[in-house]
């Protein structure tokens, strides 16, 4: 009898846990949805889920599939159904995707796949700034001279460098601000500020000739040169940050009055802490201290509660620093605001 009671209690506990763990599908979630050009994974997830970061569960993805997801394209039809009472989203079997076999067509097809988050909001930050070690950075190729002994350089200028060992495209950088952990006061890394793009004209053993193709801000004699990276496509699956991941916003890049929707911020967590692209954090604002009085008029200090003020989608990760895009913000986000798993209280 005791065993039956224990078994029943365990079954009830498991049932409650499963119920609490069910995905919250929105009441107006479409049973079928045709992906449109301009859609993002975050936006589509938000059509179905109150918690868009739970997309992998709705799509029935395992850990490997989260890291190497299938592409989704405009024109794909998504179908919502239920298996054993649990929701599942998949490509509709009655709307097969047209397969193009030529390599050229495949390249164009990949370019048309939908991104995780709005590409235009993060394009300037996908390859810059860099987080660098100053000592190693100082050993890189360097711009040593420009035309007419000018220090500030312009598009079209022919310039000279030392240490460039490959043809092709390069980028000019210089050391910027040091990112500091607000709690430990330890340096997390130094940002290298992007100056512009250059292309090699002539590759010689001693001095190399390059031409400036574009300038963002300024390119200066003395800048260090870094090989231009390949263009990156953001196809990271939104998934929740893991329990125990807590950090703070340490830098904001758009607006002096605080970051808003689709602004980029840097946080004091990186790959060393287990952070990876696609992770979603909640942004939390600590409540201020206020003075309240009781019925007798006696005053005391009270602390307002911490409130969630938005979500942060991580799209670029270094060892101790990550960059993320502010989503679903309810007001301005400031340096010092906390981050934690999105379901944290």
From TrEMBL:
The keyword Coiled coil does not apply. Pfam families: LysM (PF01476). InterPro entries: Bact_Kbp (IPR052196), LysM (IPR018392), LysM_dom_sf (IPR036779). Residues 1-20 form the signal peptide. Keywords: Signal. CDD domains: LysM (cd00118). It comes from the Bacteria. Residues 31-80 form the LysM domain. This is Peptidoglycan-binding protein.
């Amino acid at each position: 009898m005791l065993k039956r009671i224990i078994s029943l209690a365990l079954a009830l506990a498991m049932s409650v846990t499963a119920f609490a763990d069910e995905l919250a599908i929105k009441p107006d979630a479409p049973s079928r949805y045709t992906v449109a050009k301009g859609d993002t994974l975050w936006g589509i997830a938000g059509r179905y889920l109150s918690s868009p970061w739970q997309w992998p569960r709705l799509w029935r993805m395992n850990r490997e599939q989260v890291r190497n997801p299938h592409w989704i394209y405009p024109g794909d039809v998504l179908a919502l159904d239920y298996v054993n009472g649990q929701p599942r989203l998949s490509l509709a079997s009655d709307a097969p995707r047209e397969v193009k076999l030529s390599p050229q067509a495949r390249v164009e097809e990949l370019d048309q796949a939908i991104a995780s988050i709005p590409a235009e909001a993060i394009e300037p930050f996908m390859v810059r700034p860099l987080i660098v070690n100053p000592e190693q950075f100082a050993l890189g190729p360097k711009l040593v001279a420009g035309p007419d002994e000018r220090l500030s350089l312009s598009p079209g200028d022919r310039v000279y460098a030392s240490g460039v060992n490959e043809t092709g495209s390069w980028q000019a950088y210089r050391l910027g601000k040091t990112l500091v952990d607000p709690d430990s006061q330890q340096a997390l890394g130094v940002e290298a500020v992007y100056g512009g793009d250059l292309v090699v004209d002539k590759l010689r053993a001693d001095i190399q000739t390059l031409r400036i193709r574009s300038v963002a801000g300024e390119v200066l004699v003395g800048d260090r040169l870094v090989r231009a990276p390949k263009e990156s496509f953001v196809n990271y699956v939104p998934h929740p940050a893991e329990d125990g991941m807590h950090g703070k916003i340490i830098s904001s890049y758009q607006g002096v009055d605080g970051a808003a929707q689709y602004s980029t911020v840097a946080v004091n967590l990186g790959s060393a802490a287990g952070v990876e692209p696609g992770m979603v954090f909640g942004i939390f604002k600590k409540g201020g201290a206020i003075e309240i009085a009781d019925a007798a008029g006696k005053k005391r200090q009270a602390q307002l509660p911490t409130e969630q003020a938005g979500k942060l989608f991580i799209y670029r990760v270094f060892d101790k620093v990550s960059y993320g895009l502010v989503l679903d913000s309810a007001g301005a986000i400031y340096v010092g605001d906390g981050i934690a798993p999105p379901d944290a209280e």
